[in-house]
Amino acid sequence: MARSPKPPTKNPPETAGLPKAPTGIQGLDEITGGGLPRGRPTLLCGSAGSGKTMLAAEFLVHGALDHGEPGVFMMFEESAEELAQNLRSLGVDLDALQRQKKIAVDHVHVERNEIQETGEYDLEGLFIRLGHAIDTIGAKRVVLDTIEALFSGLPNHAVLRAELRRLFRWLKDRGVTAVITGERGEQSLTRYGLEEYVADCVILLDHRLVDQVSTRHLRIVKYRGTEHGTNEYPFLIGARGISVLPITSMRLDHQACTERVSTGIGGLDDMLGGAGLFRGSSTLVSGAPGTGKSSVGASFVDAACRRGERALLFAYEESSPQLLRNMGSIGLDLGRWQDSGLLRIDASRPTLHGLEQHLMHMYELVRAFKPAVVVVDPISNLSMDREDRALKPTLMRLIDYLKQQGITALFTSLTSDQAADVADSQVGVSSLMDTWILLSNLAGNGERTRTLQVLKSRGMPHSHQVREFLMGDHGVGLVDVVLAGDRVLTGTARISQVAQEEAASELRQRDHERRLKELANHRKAIDARIAVLNAQAEERASEVEFAIERERLHAEGASSRARALARTRDVPPPRPVTTQSTRPARRSAK
Amino acid sequence: MNARLATPRAPARGRKPVALDEDTPGTAEWQLRLYVAGQTAKSAAALDNLRRVCESHLAGRYTIEVIDLLVNPRLAAGDQILAVPTLVRKFPEPIRKIIGDLSNEERVLVGLDVQPLR
Fold first, then answer.
1. B44 vs A: CB within 8 A
2. How far is A444 from A194, CA to CA, in rounded Å?
3. How is chain A split into domains, by residue range?
4. Which of A156, A275, A470, A522 could be disulfide-bonded to A260 (CB atoms 3.0-4.6 Å)?
């Protein structure tokens, strides 16, 4: 009966004054704060088939195997062979334990019609047998199952009661931790009122049918001198024996991790403060049928596997191959992760087990597979034909358990299409979740549009916008928000708005181009005119220069001729009056 | 029943003579075993009462074996002894048990299924 080590947080403080004998039964030691009262008798009562014998046997076996406390099993109903068979189903070899002197078994068989009563007697024989068995193996634990059978075997109840009182006293004196089982009575806890004699600790087992699903419950009615959980706790008899379920729900003491993990949907990570979910947090994805819950879950799993982490997917709607095929259609190849051992898909019908059994199954898988990410798709199916109040505490336990293991969990939840009020839905578990993502189908404008919104996300800034959610060939994605004035547009309206905006912007673009071209043309025209004017100015300038030059040459020529004439005639040079006479001639030439 | 018992068997644990042959010493028509726990008043009374009844009704046809469980606690399980004193009729079969100090002779006779001589 190898059990995995318990998480470190599950060591409840032991009451100093009262030593306890651990039962080794999952959950029971947590409720009782360490186990049954050591050296004292404990009464275990319950109706037929409620698991009394199994619990008592486990108490002995764990004591013998794990705590070095040999035990005596004295039974009044089953034979030794029957007990050995029952324990074999849990993987315990009773014969071997007997050979190793770890457990002694004594079957006390009382046949009423063999016995005649004459005069006084006592049950010293029983004491001697029990004492002998205890001494032979040095037993620290004793189980009497079910001592009430003596009431039907022995006619004189007055003697029997006196002797039982003496027996329990004697057990205390011997210092053995005893478990006495008793049949549940109509009015009292046990049919013959054993609780009168065993006053230290009383545990009540119960087996109820609720909506055709049977659930076992355990309750500690009384535990003198120590604190204990007083609630009724569901328990199971599974392949590994008894498990009492509220393994972790007594305290909220899990660690909070600041590391963030991606959801596998880029746009969603952006909405969640840009970094995704906190590791170890739990997320609820709720929505009506066909809103893409499973796809979100699959993306989450895919992202975890991409990071090289292990992921566990509980599928309650689709078989594993069906899931792989359907997710393949949106480009999520989960098969390769399954082949590489990173992904495990556990697909089963929710009606296969009761809720507690599902939970137990989940615990066991999580313990064995040690995933970093767990997806349950969907949790709402677990509550089929059931009152929701049973689901909530169960999920609370699961969530607490996953949180303590630091596992990031994502639960999908189906809401009915008509449920307009979102806060009313989600089997009442939304308050347990750190992040709540709501997927909804918006019908309007002749179409339905998938949308996604983050209703809450503890401890991080998150977008309040409703995003449009698309499933394509390459996984799921979110479309950027399109705003028209003060409205967020989705679906066709978004597409048409985008088209309109694109058209408008093209028109503007062309207008701008046209105006720029016009400007350029205008500038070109001006440049041309400038060139013409420049040419004209140059022409004029060269003409003026030419005329000036000609006139200067002409004047020089005239003066030199005059000087030459003067030299010849020896007269002073004349004033240049004659040059004025040439001006009308130049003007006419123009 | 007689056919099975007619076959002599090896004495179990060297203590239990089982044979029908009346001539064999140590065997008797009525084999009785009385379980007691120590020398208490009750066990002494039971033994006295038993001897008286046997002498009255089964004289010469019985053996009585007294087993003190304080000395031999292992033997308690064999005959499914709970109460002491317990008288066990080992033979003739079927096994019958009478618990108590055997103070009521009539009930002892009924319990042993003995026809009273008187």
1. no
2. 69
3. 8-244, 260-479, 495-584
4. A275
